[in-house]
Design goal:
- There is one protein chain.
- The protein is α/β, with parallel strands linked by helices.
- Helices cover 29% and strands 23% of the residues.
- It has a single domain, classed as Purple Acid Phosphatase, chain A, domain 2 (4-Layer Sandwich), CATH 3.60.21.
- The protein is built from eight helices and twelve strands.
- A hairpin with a 6-residue loop joins strand 7 and strand 8.
- The model has no long low-confidence stretch (mean pLDDT 96).
Length: 244
């Protein structure tokens, strides 16, 4: 079975549409949270995901939008974007966000936004954090987002010792997952932070045990123009050009 893995869309409709146009049609879709925040099209992004019957967990920006966490946890620009998003969302799309779970288990895959230990908020950026999190999920693999950086953390238990190995997903291509337990991040659709401005996503093949990691260009200027028109913070607009 193959699944389309997406995360951190952040209300960037142009990027989301580019991913859907590039990916094989009719794949089941797993979304790792942060549907909204930062970008200019929160309603359109949610409605497109609802239309495609995506299985999705909630992210920290989604949580903030439905008043489940304090805005004091956000920097000035992110807070401004959350408040703008709250003012834009239709009631049915707010209701959709409120129904999103904080985690899902699909066969040998645990889905969360941040980490299995702290599903909404924890960033898994380094091997130390990844190592600590393997004790908090029971499946072979855990799929996460939140950092906007595509990476695989593998648990190597050779010689009776547990070590966390890091494989940064720099070049698009096929990555073999192996039989080691792993934490996998497909990167961000709507706001990459690995120095590559293209939308990031992956296709998981559970039969071949592979991850097809992909990048796709999108109409970045369209998104930035809409953000300017919405008077969203300039730093959020500028960073899209640089993938940071």
């Amino acid at each position: 079975m193959r699944y389309l893995l997406i995360s951190d869309i952040h209300s960037n409709l142009a990027a989301l549409e580019a991913v859907f146009a590039d990916a094989p049609a009719d794949l089941p879709i797993w979304c790792l949270g942060d549907l909204v925040g930062y970008g200019p099209n929160p309603n359109e992004c949610i409605e497109l995901l609802r239309e495609k019957d995506v299985k999705c967990v909630i992210g920290n920006h989604d949580w903030a939008t439905i008043d489940q966490t304090s805005l004091e946890d956000f920097n000035t620009e992110a807070k401004a974007a959350v408040l703008w998003t709250q003012a834009q969302l239709k009631s049915e799309n707010l209701a959709y966000l409120r129904k999103l779970p904080i985690s899902l288990v699909e066969g040998e895959y645990t889905l969360v936004h941040g980490s299995p230990r702290k599903p909404v908020w924890e960033y898994i950026l380094h091997p130390t954090a990844a190592s600590l999190n393997f004790a908090y999920f029971n499946t072979t693999y855990c799929l996460v987002g939140h950092t906007h950086i595509p990476v695989i953390f593998r648990l190597d238990q050779a010689d009776g010792q547990a070590r966390c190995q890091v494989e940064q997903l720099v070049e698009p291509g096929i990555y073999f997952l192996g039989d080691q337990r792993a934490i996998i991040n497909p990167g961000s659709v709507g706001q990459p932070r690995d120095g590559d401005a293209r939308a990031s996503y992956a296709i998981l093949d559970t039969e071949t045990n592979t991850l097809d990691y992909r990048r796709i260009s999108y109409d970045l200027i369209k998104t930035q123009t809409l953000m300017h028109q919405a008077k969203l913070p300039g730093r959020l607009i500028a960073r899209l050009s640089y993938g940071w």
